[in-house]
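Can you please make up a protein's amino acid sequence together with its fold in token form to help me picture the idea?
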Amino acid sequence: MSMHLTKRALTAAVIVAAVVPSAAGARPLYDPPGSSYTVAVPAVQTAAPPVAQAGQGFRWDDAGLGAAGMLVLVGVGSGAAVAVRRRGGRAVMG
């Protein structure tokens, strides 16, 4: 029985190898046979250097939002830690 399975697997491998083209001989569809495949190198363009602009100073409203967000995260984390500790310290593992 194992000889039959080995022959079947070998036959399937030969068929797959014959049908599937190799990547080494692959060409793009738009490249006609007989022409060499070349890659065009794009021209290098230089950008103008960035210009420094006058700053608007420290943004207290953005700092306040960041601090409030941090306090919310710390509060939620502390509340979760207290809730887990009051349940007996058994964490649920997935």
Observations:
- The helical segments are 2-19, 60-86.
